[in-house]
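ugh ok fine here u go
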Amino acid sequence: MKRNDYLYPSGEFARLTGVNKRTLHYYNDIGLFCPEIIGENGYHYYSCFQFAQLELILTLRKIGLSIEEIREYVTGPSDESFSRMMEKKKQLIDASIRQLLSVQAFLEQKSQRLQAGFEARHGEIELCTLPERKIICSAPISGKYDEEDFSVAAEFSLRLKKLFHLYDSFGSRISMDAVRSGEWNSYASFFAYCPGNSEIYDEVLPKGAFLRAYCVGAWERLPEVYQKILDYAEERNLALTGYAYEEGLNEMAIRSQEDYVTMITIPCADSAAVQVKKGDYAGKDG
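structure:
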């Protein structure tokens, strides 16, 4: 057979398209993708016009179509059947992309938290400005971490999975009134931050100033850190408001409780500004 420039033996065609030669033979055997010409010597030859056809088949395989689904279309192609098939797969791909982006954000968050845990120093306190964040809160807890609290935790974990399609760790929050009263175990609820684009949330933490502190070690060390926080705020005339939000930073990467890092984040404001604001409201009410 005379070799034409537009024809390629199966080996060369396989090399140019990046598929295994055995795959081409298999596709031919099942009638999915056949050579343009079979020579008198039994050699298979594919034409340059078959590149696009094979590319379509490979793409359909990549997006999850079965061999049977592809063969059904190839043997009886129509604009309508192709459009239906593509729309169905496009929806699946869009869902997969959303899931992958969610997983990417999840892993980036974990990486950042671990890095913060590595750099944390026990009792370290800093004043920082944080953006607006939405949170999801659990049902109230007692702070005893007994069976009832564990039941709330289990229910909360399932809720997070349902809302955001991922099981994730979550933190606890305790009111600053309880902290100031020395009621160290009077936790109010569990909480978790929502993804940035979430339209589902329970509360919004507005953008503003926050105190951030770190406790390294067992939870029994938390009261001493809270006392440092109270002293720090008093010395700088800062009003600590709302709740203290506690998050474990490295629970997946520790060998013992002594290495556990808890990050505490508390909204704050200048005490004088808070007093003026309260006075303004009192005047208006009067």
